[in-house]
Amino acid sequence: GAVVSQHPSRVICKSGTSVKIECRSLDFQATTMFWYRQFPKQSLMLMATSNEGSKATYEQGVEKDKFLINHASLTLSTLTVTSAHPEDSSFYICSARGQTAYEQYFGPGTRLTVT
Amino acid sequence: GDSVTQMEGPVTLSEEAFLTINCTYTATGYPSLFWYVQYPGEGLQLLLKATKADDKGSNKGFEATYRKETTSFHLEKGSVQVSDSAVYFCALSVPNQGGKLIFGQGTELSVKP
Question: Which strands make up the sheet holding B56-59, listed edge to edge?
Fold first, then answer.
């Protein structure tokens, strides 16, 4: 089946620094990738839709200057959390869309802790 | 707006018990409906899906039927196992929105031996 990886799986950073999270589709090409945020014992909140070669589309309330998304190739999308603060600590999950609109494959997630 | 509502957890069952996790939705148009499962420490996996009314999705003994008249997609399994312990998410995808998924809040299932 289709595999999506994320790197790193866990990261701890200091307040004010930036962190980059990578999302890769390993055995298929994904023109569209999605970034979600998941709080403990809560649902996934869609942050943005990332399309290869174009600007990401952000959901209402998500700061595009704080969460920079780059989809530079058909297999890689990155999320950079800029000037991170403790309230940005969360579980970030990416997914990649398959050949049909309703096929979506999820990465294992990245646990970000900002101290 | 489009939304998904699931029954609150946690749900605790004994092994071999019958499982139902309720899911209802609100959507414009004709959504596709999904159940995803998240095992501890892992990412989400698609469990089953249904793309039109009256479709039944099934996988690994789990079933859910797309009920347009009641806007529901309840998850059922006749006999749960300890290995089914996980968080289950109901989700919908609205047509013409590029596959964007809207998730319910998740239901944690704990199965005791």
Answer: B19-21, B75-77, B62-65, B56-59
Q: How many residues does chain A have?
A: 115
Which two tokens mark A53? 């070669």
Chain B CB contacts of A52 under 8 Å are: none
Contact predicate B43/A108, CB 8 Å = yes
CB B8 within 8 A of CB B21: no
* Chain B positions in Cβ-Cβ contact with residue A108 (cut-off 8 Å): 42-43
Give the span between the Cα atoms of A22 and A78, in whole angstroms.
5
pLDDT interval class at A94 (50, 70, 90): very high
State the smallest CA–CA distance between residue A39 and chain B in angstroms.
11
Which residues in B lie closer than 8 A to residue A32 (C-beta atoms)?
A: 98-99
Work out the average pLDDT over B65-91: 96
Token duo for residue B104? 């319910």
Which of B43, B51, B103 is opposite residue A107, by nearest beta carbon?
Answer: B43
Residue B72 has pLDDT above 80, yes or no: yes
* A87: phi then psi, degrees, rounded to nearest 5: -70, -10
* Chain A, nearest residue to B106 by Cα: A43
Q: Residue A8: is the preceding peptide bond cis (ω within 30°)?
A: yes
